[in-house]
Amino acid sequence: MKSLVVGIFLAALVSLVCPAKGLCQTAGETAASGETDAGGLPEEEEPIYDPSKPIPAGYFLEKKPHPGLLIPGGAAWGLSYAYGLFIAIIERQNYDRATIRPGWLLLPVLGPFIAAATAHESCGTTGSGNGRDTYCRPPYRGALAVLGGIQAVGVALAALAYVAPRKRLVRVQVTVTPVSIGHDGYGLSLSGRL
């Protein structure tokens, strides 16, 4: 009885999902049309998306972040942020001689600029008596500004990958096949890409 209910439910579901002609195919129709699973004959080529034309029947517009912008942007931001964290750790270990406040480098993009603006020269002495030497460490404002600029460019590229996504037409593929359920039941399997 359960298998009959499941079969009726799946048949009703298929009739709701596939009202448009050509969107759903049974296993027999798929084999007759020449389409096969991976390793079989290649499917027909997808049409190229043209925004001035309507989307063809049986296709949908897929939008994904553009990898040509996302990967370099993420890499630029990630590497420059990691380098900023490395500088913060080094400066934190020598806090009495630090030329910057290392906590600012934990803030992405703006942190290096704030650290550059608040940087100061650090002077001290080494040795004792007549062997005493005075030293001064200059603040590396330019290097911090460049670090902040690289982070800003990386974030901008990654954001642009989502604002201007890659668009392509993908064929709607839904396949309905009969399946056995349990020991003595039958039903329908609905699979595909919508």
Structural features, described:
The strands form 3 sheets. Strands 1-6-7 form a 3-stranded mixed beta sheet. Strand 3 and strand 4 form a beta hairpin. Helices cover 42% and strands 22% of the residues. The protein is elongated, with a radius of gyration of 31 Å. It has 2 domains: 73 residues, no CATH class; 97 residues. The protein has 194 residues and is an alpha+beta fold. The two termini are 31 Å apart. Helix 3 packs antiparallel against helix 5 and helix 4 packs antiparallel against helix 5.
Q: Determine the N-to-C terminus distance.
A: 31 Å
User: Structural class from helices and strands?
Assistant: alpha+beta
| Gyration radius, rounded | 31 Å
Q: Estimate the global geometry from the Cα principal axes.
A: elongated
Number of helices: 5
Question: How many structural domains?
Answer: 2
Mean of residue pLDDT? 75
Order of helices and strands: HEHEHHEEHEEE
Strand content: 15-25%
Query: What is the helix fraction of residues, given as a range?
Result: 40-55%
Low-pLDDT regions:
19-23, 25-41
Strand order of the largest sheet: 1-6-7
What profile does the largest beta sheet have? 3 strands, mixed
Can you count the beta strands? 7
